[in-house]
Request: fold
Amino acid sequence: METDSTLSALALAISIAVFGMTEIAATVIAFTLRVRTGILSPEPVEDDRDMEVLRHIPGGPTAPLRLLNLAAVTATVLSMAALVVSRSGTNWVLISVVETGTLAGLGLLLAVSRAVAIVWSNALMSTAYRLTRALSFPLYPILLAQSVLLRGFPWNPQSEDPSEDRGIELDLDVTTTPEALDEHEVRMIKAVVQLDTTVAREIMVPRVDVVAAEADTPLNLLAEQMLEGGHSRIPVFTTDLDHIDGIAHARDILQYLSDSEALSELTALQVARPTLFIPESKTLEELLDEFQEKRVHLAVVVDEYGGVEGIVTIEDLLEEIVGEIQDEFDVSEPEIQPIGIDEYLVDARLNIDEFNEALQVSVENDGFDTVGGFVFERLGTIPSVGDFVQYDGLRIEVMSTLGRRMKMLKVTRTS
Reply:
């Protein structure tokens, strides 16, 4: 009996160690593929052939590790059951309680393993690749059979890209370890990872803020408009913004500066270049590809009915990754200004997620993108100065408007 107990304990220890090791290795590989750690690190992957071999493994680069990981979980559960039986006999209540605790412990070990893998991903990368490559050879027949069997199912987990591991993204965080990425780098990585889920509507300049020129505007007036607004590209329209006919570029106007006659006779439409129209649902990843392919820096965002919603530029897209970019001509006030104890002056155009992060609140985003949109939705009517809403310990008052649109809001913590 004592021998059985010892063997069960030894098997349990080995299976737990294998579970943690395979989870760390799989996370390192998935994390590397997801955020392209290799291009951020001065040390490249040891051998490009490692990656090439992993790509040809049936089921994907992490398939051997997933298989061994599953075997380790099974062995852990069985070893723990055997250990309980050897100590206390066949007590099903005790076995159930112990196994529940075992699964909870494995869940904790999984979280710790992923955190360790991400923090030390650069140092563990080569080891993870070598381990996976070594496992792929003896497990190849099993992996191949598994891949063939799963191929007929509508949902095939083996076909998923390991870089799409949802858990990896949740583990991206800032640490104080010297080898870890700093806060700014982590935010940039998160932003890049989210390019395929963020859509153009979320970062566009809304229609009401678009600076545009009528088609018959003379070039001299167009140049003044560009200079006054600090824009190098301006949409050109006829009738209204729903009929944009092109994009005027400052560079095209510069060639006529020495010709006063041309400046007064040529119109904005005559120098405008073709317009790139995109749906508001286009992801930033797709938009970046289109900007690169068509070699343009500005796109007009339209809704499902073809109406113009706003514009988006390559600078807007870049700011989504690296944060706000201010050039020497930009003049802007902070979007959130403290004006007293628990009182803030807030730009109504401030994104609701940035508002939540800055004030450490949790205003739910339900069909709107800005703080002004939240107030508008809660009021249910055209806002006027002095109108206010209360929500979850906040009092948000309309301080100024521009026509039917809110400009500035005062936010007060009431509790």
